[in-house]
Design a protein that fits this description.
- The complex is a heterotrimer of chains A (about 400), B (about 200) and C (about 450).
- Chain A is of the alpha+beta class and about 400 residues long.
- Chain A folds into 2 domains: about 50 residues, no CATH class; about 290 residues, Cytochrome-c3 Hydrogenase, chain B (Orthogonal Bundle).
- Chain A has 14 helices and 10 strands.
- In chain A, strands 3-4-5 form a 3-stranded antiparallel beta sheet. In chain A, strands 8-9-10 form a 3-stranded antiparallel beta sheet.
- The longest helix of chain A has 30 residues.
- The longest helix of chain B is centred in the N-terminal third of the chain and has 30 residues.
- In chain B, the strands form 2 sheets. In chain B, strands 2, 3, 5 and 6 form a 4-stranded antiparallel beta sheet that branches. In chain B, strands 1-4 form a two-stranded antiparallel ribbon.
- Chain B has 2 domains: about 35 residues; about 110 residues, Alpha-Beta Plaits, CATH 3.30.70.
- The model of chain B has no long low-confidence stretch (mean pLDDT about 85).
- Chain C is globular and about 60 Å long.
- Classes of the chains: A alpha+beta (about 400), B alpha+beta (about 200), C mainly alpha (about 450).
- Chains in contact: A-B, A-C, B-C.
- The interface between B and C is medium-sized, with 27 and 33 residues.
C-alpha cells in the first residue's frame, strides 16, 4: 500500500464524467465523489477525491452546481432593481452583499449615504455577521460530529432573524439597503430589543465555549489540521476569517474603511495557534467566535451614538450614472466582498462582477488535500466557511 | 526528564477528556429543563402566526384596487416583471381610464418590496399572510381585477388627504376565508374563459 | 382557515383523539409490558426440571418419562426466543422514541409529539414505513451477500439475550460461561458490517465497513479485559453468579468495591460505546462524512434491521455494564434467602416468588434504562473522534489501562481482606454521590449563567 502523498501527474482529470482516472492502470486507489449532495459540503459542491484507504491523495473541487447567472442578471436589470438579487449572492450574510453593491454604485454616482443611514447599515450588518458566524460555527461543529451546538447556534440566530424581520420585513433575503441609504428607519423600541439580545448573547458565548470550543475531542480534531501559513493565505487570495486565522491582521473595516466604521473601536481577532499551529482549523473557528463578540461591541457603540438625520440620500428614480467604473469592497462575514461595476451611461450596468471570499477559499482546498484523511477534508471545508451560493453566484 | 514530561502529558490528556465530558454534559443536561424554542405551528400556537408577525413583514401582496391610480410604477419597479397591468379607456366615459387587468404572479414574486415603495397611494402593500398553498401553480396568480368585464376606474387622489385604503391585509384575508382553494383560480376564482397572459 | 388540497387530509389522530390516546396507551404499556410479563413467566421456567415439575403439578403429566419431552422443551425454547426477539424489536423502537425526545430537548426543541399522544407511536409508524418501502438491491452488488448481511448483525444482537439476567431467575439460560459467551457472540455484528460494506460495491459503504471493522475489532480487547475484572472479583464467568456476588445497595456494587473496578467500569463503557458504534465512536456511519457508511445502499426492511441492531445494542451494552458492575437485578434490602423462601418447597414457583422476580426485573430495567439514557446523552453532547485518534485511544490508553486494572484486581483479591472491600465500597460510593451532587449543582448553575434563561418545563 503506497503512502506516497505527492500530487500525481499520471492522473487524467476527466471532470465531465466525475472521475479522476489513473493513466497507468493502477487501481489500488479509489475515487469518491464527495457530493454534490452531501451533508457537509455546505451547499452543492462536488469534491472529486482520490483516496488510498483513509488517506487522500488529491481532492479537486468541482463547482457550478448553484450557478444562477447573477452577474449576467446585473446587466439585464436596472441599478435599483438589482438589490434583491444581491441578497441571493450570499443568502447567509445578505446584508453585506447589499452593502457592497450599494457602496459600489454610490461610488459610481459620487454620492454618500447620510450618517444615520450609515450607522443603521453598520448595526444591521454586524447583526448579520453574528448570524452568519453562528451558522458557520454551528455547521462546523456538526460536521465534526456534535449535533447539539448546531441547533443552539440556530436558536441564537433566530433571535437575530426576528430582530431583522422587525427592521426590514424579511428574515433571510433582506433587501434592506438602498442606493444612497437604507429603506426603513429603525422602529420604535427596536434598539432596546437589540441591546437585550446582546446582553443574552455575550453570556451565551461563554456557554458555547464550554460546550464545544474548548471540548477536548473537538480541539484534537482541529488542532494542527489544514494549516495555512501566512504566505500561503496571501498567495491564494484568502480573505476574512480564513486570512486572519493565519495570523494576517487585515480587515477592510480597518484598512480600507467605509461607512461608519471609522467611528467605532473594536479589535481584529487573529489566529494565534492557541491549541495547535497558527492557521489551523481551530484558529479559524476561534477567530469567528471572537468576531461575534467584537460585532456585539460595535453594535453597542453604534446604538449609543446613533445620530439623527435622513435615512436616504436623494437619488433619481431612474439611475443613469456617468460612463465609468467603480469598486465597492466590504468586509463580509466570509471575507472581502468586492463589487466591480462598469457603467456605459445607461440605466443598466454594462458589467457587474462580484468577487467573494468563498470562491477564493475553494482554490486552496486542493493544495491542502494532499495526504490528509477524509475526516480532515471535511474539517477543512467547514473551517474555510465555504458556501455554495458565494462560490457559484 | 522526557519520561516525566511524557507521563504528565499522558495523564493530562485523560484529565482534559474527563473535564471536557463534565462541562459538555452539564450544559446539555441543563437544556433538558429549559424551554424549547419550537413554535408548534399551526395548531398549538397561542395566536394565529400571521398575526404575531411584525407589521413590516413582507408577505403576500395585496392591492386595494379602489385606490389604485393606474400609474404602473409598481410594474416598472419590479425587477422580474411579476406584475402585469393593462389599462383601457372606459367605453361609457371616454375621459376616464380604467384598469382592465392587474395580475400579480405570486409564484414568481421574490417578496422584495420594490413595488410597494413607489406606489403614490399605498394601494399595493405587503400583508402578513404567507400561507398560500394551492392545488396548482396557476392558482398563484392573484387577479386583482377578477372579472375583465368589470374594470376598476383610476383613482384620483385628493390633494392634502391620504387615500382611503382598506386596512392592510383585510381584503386578502376576507378572500382567503371564503375561498375554495381547490377551485380553478384558487382564491381568485376564474369565472370566464381561460385568459392568456 | 384550513389548508386543504381537495381531500380531507386531517389525520386519524386529529379526528379521533380518544382513540389515539387509547392506541398509544395500548402500545406503550401492553406491548412492552406484555413482553416483560412474557419474559418474567417464561424465562425462569425454561429449565427441564421446572418444566417437569410444572407438568406434574398442574397437568398431572409425567414429562420426564415421556418420549416427547424434548419436543416440549424445544417448543418452550421457541417461546422464550420469541419473547426475546420481540423484546429486542420493541426496545429498539421505544429507545428511538426516547432518544428523539431527549435529543430534542437537549437541542432546545421538541422531539416527535404529534403521531399519537406524546409522539410515542412514531417508532411504529417508522417501522411500518420501512417495511413498505421499495427493496432496492444495487445491480452491481453481490446479490446473496447483500441480502444476507443484515441478518448476521441481527444474530450478533440477539444471541446475548440468551444469558442476559433480567431478574433473579429471569434468564433464558444460566450458562456457566456467560461472560465468555457474550464476548464471543457480539463479534457477529462486525461480520454483518463488513459483509454489507463489501457486498454493496460502493466506495462509501466500503469506507464505513472498513472503519467499522477496525474499530470493533480493536475495542474487543479492552472490553474483554475490563470485563475480566468483575469475573475475578466474583470468581465465576456466569452472569448470575456475578450478580449474586454483589448486593442491592450502591456500596455493594462491584464498581465501588475496588478502585480498579471503578476504572474498569469506565473502560468497559467506553469500549462498549465503540463496539456499538455510538458517538463519540460512530465513524462507520458518520452521518456528516459518509452519509450512511456501511448501510448506505440499504433500504426498506434490511435497513430497518441495521437500525434496530444499532439501537437495541444499547440494551446489551447497558445491560452488560449493569450486570457486571452496577449490581444487576439486586434489589436493595432483599437478600437471596428471601427468594429461596418464597420459592416454597417444590420447584414450581409461587405467586410471591414471581412478585419478587418482577421486583428484581424492575430494578434491572431501571438501571439499564438509566444507563441507556446516559448513552443517549453522550451521543448528543460530544463530537466524533477521527479514525487514527480512535485507534490511538484504544491501543495507547484503554488497553494499558485495562491491563493495569486487571493486574491490580488480581493483587487486590489476593491481598486485601473482605473488610477492605466494604470500606472501599462505602468510601467510593460516597465519593460518587458527592460528584453527582456537584454535577447537578453545576447543571443548575448553567441555567443562571446565561442571561434570560431559566428553568421552564413548558412546551412539550
Amino acid at each position: 500500500m503506497s503512502t506516497d502523498t505527492t500530487p500525481d501527474t499520471t492522473i487524467d482529470m476527466n471532470l465531465d464524467r466525475h472521475i479522476l482516472r489513473r493513466t497507468d492502470g493502477n487501481d489500488e486507489e479509489i475515487v469518491v465523489n464527495f457530493g454534490p449532495q452531501h451533508p457537509s459540503t455546505h451547499g452543492v459542491i462536488n469534491f472529486v477525491t482520490q483516496t488510498n484507504g483513509e488517506v487522500i491523495r488529491r481532492s479537486v473541487p468541482e463547482i457550478g452546481y448553484l450557478h444562477r447567472g447573477l452577474e449576467k442578471i446585473g446587466e439585464l436589470v436596472a441599478y435599483p432593481g438589482y438589490m434583491p438579487f444581491t441578497d441571493r449572492i450570499d443568502y447567509l450574510a445578505a446584508m453585506f452583499a447589499n452593502e457592497g453593491y450599494a457602496v459600489a454604485v454610490e461610488r459610481l454616482l459620487g454620492i454618500e449615504a447620510p450618517l444615520r443611514a450609515q450607522y443603521i447599515r453598520a448595526i444591521s450588518c454586524e447583526l448579520c455577521r453574528i448570524a452568519s458566524h453562528f451558522i458557520s460555527i454551528g455547521t462546523m461543529a456538526q460536521d465534526i460530529g456534535a449535533a447539539t451546538p448546531l441547533t443552539h447556534a440556530l436558536r441564537e440566530r433566530e433571535s437575530i432573524n426576528d430582530l431583522l424581520e422587525e427592521l426590514c420585513g424579511a428574515r433571510l433575503t433582506y433587501n434592506f439597503l438602498r442606493i444612497g441609504g437604507v429603506a426603513f428607519d429603525v422602529p420604535v423600541g427596536w434598539t432596546d430589543k437589540v441591546l437585550r439580545f446582546l446582553d443574552h448573547l455575550e453570556s451565551y458565548i461563554q456557554e458555547w465555549d464550554r460546550l464545544i470550543t474548548f471540548n477536548k475531542i473537538f480541539v484534537k480534531r482541529l488542532a494542527g489540521v489544514g494549516v495555512i501559513t501566512r504566505d500561503q493565505a496571501i498567495d491564494y487570495g484568502l480573505v476574512g476569517p480564513n486570512l486572519r486565522g493565519s495570523g494576517v491582521k487585515f480587515d477592510i473595516r480597518r484598512d480600507m474603511p467605509y461607512g461608519a466604521y471609522p467611528n467605532f473601536e473594536f479589535n481584529i481577532p487573529v489566529g494565534t495557534g492557541k491549541v495547535g499551529t497558527v492557521g489551523d482549523c481551530w484558529d479559524r473557528f476561534f477567530v469567528r467566535v471572537q468576531e461575534v463578540v467584537e460585532s456585539s461591541k460595535i453594535i453597542r457603540q453604534a446604538i449609543a451614538k446613533l445620530p439623527e438625520g435622513d435615512i436616504q440620500a436623494k437619488v433619481a428614480r431612474k439611475l443613469k450614472p456617468e460612463v465609468g467604473e467603480a469598486v465597492g469592497q466590504v468586509e463580509s462575514a466570509r471575507g472581502e466582498m468586492l463589487y466591480y461595476i462598469v457603467s456605459d451611461g445607461s440605466e443598466k450596468a454594462y458589467r457587474l462582477r462580484v468577487r467573494t471570499g468563498s470562491f477564493m477559499a475553494m482554490g486552496i482546498i486542493e493544495e491542502l488535500s494532499h495526504g490528509i484523511m477524509v475526516a480532515d477534508l471535511i474539517a477543512i471545508i467547514a473551517s474555510l466557511d465555504v458556501v455554495a451560493p458565494e462560490v457559484d453566484r | 526528564m522526557p519520561m516525566t514530561e511524557a507521563l504528565r502529558e499522558y495523564f493530562g490528556h485523560i484529565t482534559d477528556v474527563v473535564k471536557t465530558f463534565w462541562e459538555g454534559m452539564t450544559v446539555t443536561l441543563s437544556y433538558m429543563v429549559r424551554r424549547p424554542i419550537t413554535v408548534q405551528y399551526p395548531d398549538r400556537t397561542a395566536q394565529r402566526v400571521a398575526d404575531t408577525l411584525p407589521s413590516r413583514y413582507r408577505g403576500l401582496l395585496e392591492v386595494d384596487i379602489n385606490v389604485c391610480t393606474g400609474c404602473m410604477a409598481c410594474e416598472r419597479a419590479c425587477p422580474i416583471s411579476v406584475i402585469k397591468i393593462s389599462t383601457d379607456k372606459d367605453p361609457s366615459n371616454l375621459k376616464q381610464r380604467v384598469i382592465a387587468q392587474f395580475d400579480i404572479d405570486e409564484s414568481k414574486c421574490m417578496f422584495c418590496g420594490l413595488c410597494v415603495e413607489p406606489c403614490p397611494t399605498g394601494a399595493i402593500q405587503h400583508t402578513r399572510e404567507f400561507e398560500s398553498t394551492m392545488k396548482s401553480v396557476d392558482n398563484l396568480v392573484f387577479r386583482w381585477i377578477p372579472d375583465p368585464k368589470n374594470p376598476a376606474p383610476f383613482y384620483r387622489p385628493v390633494k392634502g388627504q391620504d387615500a382611503p385604503r382598506a386596512p392592510v391585509g383585510e381584503i386578502l384575508r376576507q378572500r382567503m376565508a371564503k375561498a375554495d382553494w381547490t377551485a380553478r383560480g384558487g382564491i381568485f376564482p376564474v369565472t370566464g374563459p381561460e385568459r392568456k397572459g | 382557515m384550513r389548508i386543504t388540497l381537495g381531500l380531507d387530509s386531517t389525520s386519524l389522530t386529529r379526528r379521533y383523539p380518544r382513540l389515539a390516546v387509547l392506541a398509544t396507551l395500548f402500545m406503550a404499556f401492553v406491548a412492552p409490558l406484555g413482553l416483560y410479563i412474557g419474559a418474567l413467566v417464561f424465562f425462569p421456567l425454561n429449565t427441564p426440571e421446572r418444566l417437569d415439575a410444572m407438568a406434574k403439578q398442574w397437568l398431572g403429566f409425567d414429562l420426564a418419562a415421556s418420549h416427547y419431552r424434548h419436543l416440549v422443551y424445544a417448543v418452550f425454547l421457541l417461546l422464550v426466543a420469541f419473547v426475546a426477539v420481540n423484546f429486542t424489536a420493541v426496545f429498539g423502537g421505544v429507545s428511538t422514541w426516547v432518544e428523539r425526545r431527549v435529543a430534542g430537548r437537549m437541542q432546545s426543541r421538541i422531539g416527535p409529539n404529534r403521531t399519537s399522544a406524546a409522539g410515542f407511536l412514531a417508532w411504529v409508524a417508522d417501522a411500518v414505513k420501512m417495511v413498505l418501502k421499495e427493496d432496492t438491491v444495487p445491480a452491481s452488488a453481490d446479490q446473496l451477500l447483500f441480502r444476507g448481511a443484515p441478518y448476521f448483525s441481527m444474530v450478533g444482537l440477539l444471541l446475548p439475550f440468551v444469558v442476559m439476567p433480567f431478574g433473579e431467575s429471569v434468564v433464558a439460560t444460566n450458562m456457566n460461561v456467560g461472560v465468555f459467551y457474550i464476548m464471543a457472540v457480539t463479534a457477529f455484528v462486525v461480520v454483518g458490517i463488513l459483509i454489507s460494506g463489501w457486498s454493496s460495491n460502493s466506495n462509501w459503504a466500503l469506507f464505513g465497513a472498513v472503519r467499522g471493522a477496525a474499530q470493533v475489532i480493536s475495542y474487543e480487547i479492552p472490553a474483554g479485559i475490563a470485563l475480566m475484572v468483575p469475573v475475578l472479583m466474583a470468581g465465576s464467568l456466569s452472569m448470575q453468579d456475578i450478580v449474586r456476588a454483589q448486593g442491592g445497595m450502591p456500596w455493594d456494587w462491584f464498581v465501588f468495591r475496588n478502585p480498579a473496578a471503578f476504572v474498569a467500569f469506565f473502560i468497559s463503557v467506553t469500549s462498549s460505546l465503540a463496539e456499538g458504534n455510538r458517538t463519540p465512536f460512530d465513524l462507520p456511519e458518520a452521518e456528516s462524512e459518509l452519509v450512511a457508511g456501511y448501510h448506505a445502499e440499504y433500504s426498506g426492511f434490511r435497513l430497518a434491521i441495521f437500525l434496530m441492531v444499532e439501537w437495541a445494542n444499547m440494551w446489551i451494552m447497558a445491560g452488560l455494564a449493569v450486570t457486571l458492575f452496577l449490581g444487576g437485578w439486586q434489589v436493595p434490602f432483599v437478600a437471596s434467602e428471601t427468594y429461596k423462601a418464597a420459592l416454597g418447597a417444590g420447584l414450581v414457583p409461587t405467586p410471591s416468588w414471581f412478585g419478587l422476580q418482577a421486583l428484581s426485573m424492575l430494578v434491572f430495567s431501571l438501571k439499564t434504562w438509566g444507563l441507556v439514557i446516559v448513552f443517549i446523552w453522550l451521543r448528543w453532547t460530544l463530537p466524533r473522534v477521527r479514525v487514527d485518534q480512535m485507534m490511538s485511544l484504544c491501543w495507547k490508553y484503554l488497553v494499558p489501562g485495562a491491563f493495569l486494572c486487571f493486574v491490580v484486581t488480581l493483587l487486590w483479591q489476593l491481598l486485601v481482606p473482605p473488610l477492605g472491600n466494604t470500606v472501599t465500597g462505602v468510601v467510593l460510593s460516597l465519593v460518587a454521590f458527592v460528584l453527582l451532587a456537584k454535577f447537578l449543582l453545576a447543571t443548575y448553575r448553567n441555567i443562571g449563567r446565561v442571561k434570560g434563561d431559566r428553568v421552564d418545563l413548558t412546551n412539550w
